[in-house]
Amino acid sequence: MIKFCNLIYFNLYKLGLLINEMSVYPINNFLFKNNKKGEEVIKAVKEVSENKKNGIKITLAGMHFYALVYLFILGSINSVLICLQEVNIAININDDNLLLLLCIPSVIFAYFLIDYKDRYLDYFKYFEKFTTKKKRIWAFISLLTVIFLWFWGFGSLILRLILNNN
User: What is the pLDDT of residue 90?
Assistant: First the structure.
């Protein structure tokens, strides 16, 4: 499970770099193409963006991964609550408190999955050695997982809110 989570984290990081390659870098190259200071700016932007230890893209990928863990826990709790509601077991949980309380375990869980002792750096080195075909397959699986978690987390919350109002 830890390897799969770090693979998702790796692909979120690579997605951020791909977005930079398509949008930010061409603009910087156009603006600073024939300028010595401009080349230094481009180099600095790439360095700050692509740093795997504490760069902008790894931070954004981490925030997205933490949100995915939160949505996984939210979807799991809501699915259990929906099932309990369907079998007429009444549990009164304030939705505001539930949403806030789920932040604590999701942050702890996500931290130990990817950030504990910078374990993700070792996994990144391992994933970089994958063949292009294997990287594409796992990127597609990661994308499907991310889409599923977003729909499951929010979908279960919306469904539970709809069922509670009826």
Answer: 56
d(CA 37, CA 15): 28
Kindly write down the DSSP assignment for every residue of 114-142, as one continuous string.
Answer: IIGGGHHHHHHHHHHTS-HHHHHHHHHHH
Number of CB atoms found within 10 A of residue 43's CB: 11
Give the CA distances from residue 69 to residues 48, 88, 143, in Å, rounded to whole numbers and listed in that order. Answer: 26, 29, 15
- Predicted confidence band of residue 166 (pLDDT cuts 50, 70, 90): low
Residue 9 near residue 64, CB atoms below 8 Å: no
Q: Where are the alpha helices (DSSP H) in the chain?
A: 2-19, 25-31, 36-50, 56-86, 95-101, 103-110, 119-128, 132-165
Mean pLDDT along residues 32-37: 66
Residue type, 162: I
Hey, where are the domains in the chain?
2-165
Separation between Cα atoms, residue 59 and residue 159, nearest integer Å: 32
Q: Are 128 and 15 in contact (CB under 8 A)?
A: no
